[in-house]
Amino acid sequence: MERYLQIVLPRLADRCELSLLARDADRRPPPGVRPLAVESRWPWPRPWRDRRDWAGFEAALRKEPVDCVWSVRAVPWPGMLWQPHSGSAPHLRQARGADKPTWRQRYFEAMEEEALQSCERILALSPKVSREFRQRREGVAMTLLPPPLLSDREPEERSGLVQPEWALFCGRDARLKGAATAVRWFRALRRRWPKLGLRAWSRSVSHLERVLGQDRQSLAKEKIFLHGWDGGFEAALPEAQILLHPTAYDACSLVCLEAAAAGLSVLTTPGNGFAELVTEPWVGVLPAEAEAEAAQTSLGRLWSKRLEMGPDAWQHGVWQLRKRFDLETHVAELARVLQNAACR
């Protein structure tokens, strides 16, 4: 979300007058954005810090003449436009396998419910997110606004390949994003493509080792290489052909968007909102609990379609996908929604 705001806010400020209301907003405000810093008294652990932020936001908004409020956090302000980047908290909790919420989860979910009931419109990242919030508030106004492609890296020209060499996995929370399933899928794929290797990114190597139940040395013998959150995923895209993303929950995965826009074949799950926005021959979908052989079949079908299309048709399709999720198109649509809300 921070990266999204860093890139989107300066471009949005070119289209409309924009103020940023946030804790420490005046430290490094984006170009063209007027910062409105909210006082913060440290240390305040979460979730109490969130509630205190709410009070600061409310006090600041009552002093500032604004035409509309657009929030990327669950802040309850009457008539605001809300863009919940993480999706629906109760649905996320259930995807993690927790039927009964902890006290912290109850606190955050209560805060989110207040935001849901007070907002005028939700800017949903995917149809999945739209459904989840309409289950919780029937008839709430909804605008589908998928995330933009944030990377400005040009897709590599890719020739027709017979043997894929690298598959990737990337998820900060390796358990939620399905690292163990990705390894299971990878081992099935290697039976078809013996030279295939897997590179996996998560918040730390030790976290990946715990989730996978193996150390990095033993995994390296299978050509499985573990990485911490070092920014190397984007740099690895030009050399890869496959992304494995068996996530339990994603509002709309930016990892999948970046991979598909770089020309990779993506294999993911129905828990990923991105799977409803981009389909075959770019994205294959199967349940995370499916047998590993199903991954081999699904990805084999995607790979066969890719080879049938040929490199020129595939490259043209990649450019069309990039155009569909273009950053400037996203900002223009966001500005339109905000201006319409301001006029009411």
Features:
six-stranded parallel beta sheet, 12 helices, single chain, four-stranded parallel beta sheet
Walk me through the structure.
It is a single chain. The protein is of the alpha/beta class and 344 residues long. It has twelve helices and twelve strands. The chain has a six-stranded parallel beta sheet, with helices on both faces. Strands 3-4-5-6 form a four-stranded parallel beta sheet. Strands 1-2 form a two-stranded parallel sheet. Strand 10, helix 10 and strand 11 form a beta-alpha-beta unit. Helix 6 packs across helix 11. The protein is globular. The two termini are 28 Å apart. The model has no long low-confidence stretch (mean pLDDT 91).
Short synopsis of the structure:
This protein has 344 residues and is an alpha/beta fold. It has helices spanning 2-13, 48-63, 89-95, 103-118, 127-136, 179-192, 205-212, 216-220, 232-236, 254-261, 292-324, 327-343, and strands at 19-23, 34-38, 70-71, 81-82, 121-124, 141-144, 166-170, 197-201, 224-227, 242-245, 265-268, 283-285.
- Count of alpha/pi helices: 12
Shape: globular
Number of strands: 12
User: If you average the pLDDT, what whole number results?
Assistant: 91
Helix fraction? 40-55%
What structural category characterises the helix and strand content? alpha/beta
Helix-strand topology string: HEEHEEHHEHEEHEHHEHEHEEHH
| Largest sheet, spatial ordering of strands | 9-8-7-10-11-12
Largest sheet: 6 strands, parallel
Radius of gyration: 21 Å
Distance between the termini: 28 Å
- Beta content comes to 5-15%
